[in-house]
Known about the structure:
Helix content is 50%, strand content 14%. The protein contains 19 helices and 13 strands. The strands form 4 sheets. Strands 3, 6, 11, 12 and 13 form a 5-stranded mixed beta sheet that branches. A 4-stranded mixed beta sheet has the order 8-9-7-10. Strands 1-2 form a two-stranded parallel sheet. Helix 10 packs across helix 11 (244-258). The radius of gyration is 29 Å and the shape is globular.
Amino acid sequence: MENIKQLGGLQRRLKLLIRRLGIPQIVAICIALLLVFQFLVLPALTQQPVVLTMLMNAPEVEYWNELLVKPFEEENPGIRINILEGPNAADLVENLYTSAFILGDSPYDLIYMDVIWAPKFAAAGWLLDLSDKVTDQELQPFLDKDVEGGRYEGGLYRMPFRSDAGMLYYRKDLLAEAGYQPPETFQELVQISQDLQQKGAATWGYIWQGRQYEGLAAMFVEILEGFGGFWVNPETLEVGLDQPEAIEAIDFLRSTIEKGISPSGVTTYQEEETRRLFQSGAAVFLRNWPYVWPLANADDSAVAGKIEIKPMVHAPGQSSGACLGGWGIGISQTTAHPEEAWKAIEYFTREEAQRRVVLETGYVPSRRKLFTDPQIVAKYNYYPDLLDVVESAVLRPPIAQYVQASDILQRYLSAALTEITTPEKAMQSAANETRRLLKR
């Protein structure tokens, strides 16, 4: 009964409105409403979402889609993320990005890149400068070196997503039984290694990556930093490979082989060979990346619960160096959707998104606060120690010619470590060739 009364009242008000406005005015209003619906409402309802395309290493695609893309698209229904699955090798993914940009018809909007790619891509003009999109205050929660790794000639071209850093793993059980504190210097590492080897506690003292590949350069910058040396100064382009500190760094590595602390085959090892050897219980110390921790503490590991991590050792009076790795996101210069791309970057690099990824994958965050986050520490109790490592991170030279400079270092360093030539001759040649490269 009440509804009938309300309907009757509505009819009376409509009749009164028609008498006041007249039929022509009512028709005009209807036409206006129809035009608004046709040209504003209907396109909004039928508009296709913006699609942003990004390429990445095959192993990362699954967690990206589940932990990042799906919740982002739910929060931003007008944007879709299309992740293309690349090869399971970072250098091959870089080649695909490079080829697309050189051909001039890049299909990528978001660029997911290793820290060592940013200077090259920025120098080539392939990335948008993000400096005007983010303030220094907004960058402050990120690890300093991760932010620095995205800069080139005053611009910011890469926002940090996840970090990485080389570190020293050690057998805490063996050191404790022998009454040793973790080493701080190269000399202490050698002394502890030799003593524990002589006691039969382990076959090898110190394991590192000595094969001629990018991992060799990454490992060497840590030893070089520990002796107070440098590779290339990005500000002045001065080359330090033929300086005494660089020769000392090579002498130390060679001495570990000569003294039997490291196996002679270490000059053929990459990360996985060293990880498996350490995980089997054969070595006291290992230089490697954070990914080793969950594997070495798995139920089937001979060293589960027996290891710790710390920053790399150094010479007296010098500081530790942890080679910075990690991945970040930039925006392609050719994208038709820069604002949507930035919205995606803001989401992927925010604290809650990184927390989800860390808890599920164990990858290292780029936000400092997450290393002491209660949820993360409850699952990964070594993260506070990991913060000490990444805070001592060292950048590989952020120069546009990094790939060529690394190839030069790898060739001559490998020749010195395998005793094809002397450290002095090898580094003199490496330094001269690097200087010629930078002059070009």
